[in-house]
Fold this sequence. Notes:
By secondary structure, the chain is of the alpha+beta class. The chain folds into five domains: 24-62; 79-86 and 362-465, no CATH class; 91-104 and 270-359, Efflux pump adaptor protein, beta barrel domain (Elongation Factor Tu (Ef-tu), domain 3, Beta Barrel), CATH 2.40.30; 113-145 and 243-268, CATH 2.40.50.100; 147-239, Helix Hairpins, CATH 1.10.287. It is 28% helix and 31% strand. It has helices at 28-64, 148-190, 199-239, 285-290, 461-465; strands at residues 78-84, 86-101, 107-111, 116-121, 135-136, 141-145, 241-243, 248-250, 260-261, 266-271, 276-283, 296-299, 316-321, 332-339, 350-367, 379-390, 396-413, 418-425, 439-443, 453-456. Strands 1, 2, 11, 12, 13, 14, 15, 16, 17, 18, 19 and 20 form a twelve-stranded mixed β-sheet that branches. Strands 3-10-8-5 form a four-stranded antiparallel β-sheet, with no helix packed on it. Helix 2 (148-190) packs antiparallel against helix 3 (199-239). The two termini are 106 Å apart. InterPro entries: MdtA-like_b-barrel (IPR058626). GO terms for molecular function: efflux transmembrane transporter activity. Residues 209-236 form a coiled coil.
Amino acid sequence: MSIHLIGDLHPRNPNRPPGTQRLDEMPDEAIRAASKTIRAARSSRRSVLSICALLALIFLNLGCGRAPQSAEKDPPPAPIKWEEARQLFLEEWTELVGSTQPLPDHAARVTSPVAGRVLAVLPKNGEKPIVEGQLVEEGEVLVRLDATAIHANLAKAEAAKKVLQAERDVAAVTVKQASLDVKSLEDLKQTPNTSLVSPIALEKAALALESARASVLALDRKLEAADKEEAALKLEIQLFVLTAPRKGRLGRLQVVIGQTLPAGAAVAEVLGIDDEIDVLCFVSAADARKVQLGQSARVGGFDKDSATEAGADPEGKVVFVADQAEAETGSFAVKIRFPNRDLKLRANSVARVRILTRPGKSCWAVPESALLEDQDPPGIVLVEDVAVTKNAEGKDEQTGKVRRLRAVIGVRDRILHQVEIVRLEDVEKKWRGDLEHALIVIAKGQGLQTGDAVKFEAEDDDEAAKPDAKP
């Protein structure tokens, strides 16, 4: 019969399993026997825990006393690409962006000097009609305005002039009549033994002649005023005929027939860009210091090769560099003038140009990718102690050590993507090589430090098959 110990003294449970005894129902000998069994079980568990702890300490001591592992192996060489410096002919070009515009004396704007209604646009002058975009001569009629009122005033002035002319003719006859009166009185006065002509009558006749002559003179002045008024009206009529102010190419007309124009309204533009055209650029102070009058320039940015496309675009010249910056932007105005006989450049369009700020010269150069331009002055990485070793696949590979130096650069050719190296400087003063025989890292050199192991990375077949972009 199994004995179950129930430690809590609660009232008898009617649902207690059969065959179990409460502690208060057991005899003393049974209680002592059960207690010894429980104490023996607890002692056995303690022994097991002590043995486990002892084994753990033994294994810990064995681990601490073990010899340290060998140091990690050196990292594998970093794959890079290098090449020797080359002696090239480099030019430094500065790229600018601007807008094209005619020369200051090669642009004219046709405006309406008077208010009026458009009567005709591009009237036919002879057999050949004028069209937009055509080359026009100075004085060719472009637009006619309605000048009916001015013509009416001119006719009125001409009629008034005729009246004045008639009055002048009458005054001239009066002068002749007064002259005859004076002459007859003088003849009578000279007759002997005659006292019919009194001095007063003779004086009145002279005054009448003088008055007639004054009337003729006044009418002459009125006729002169009428002539000037007629000329002014004819000149005003000419203002209603809008003509080309200079020789050039006619732009887009901005008026239509029947439109009433206020004085000063724009009608069209006549541009002379067939011979030359300017490109106006606004540059920073740094670029303005590079640009000088007379420097050569070409149309297009760095993506155009001046050597291979020299005949494609004509050569221009810098004709203006502002001495004062713009008040709004702080940039400086620069004008480059280009021949434009083939009309490759149109007015008021965006154009990219490049200016030769440093003439070409022969020098030692490296690719732009070789420069570490995250520092000032820029850095450069060389490869030293190059040796040929076998790799894990049994193939030959070139390995070496790198050294970081500072590069003093000169001409930067943005078309060939090459940079002149004036000299190399070693901060540690340990480098004793020369640029002519140095191996320059041109790819994957970022992050390398002096003494790092590197290996030459051979080009893939796909990359080797690609032709070089530029020599």
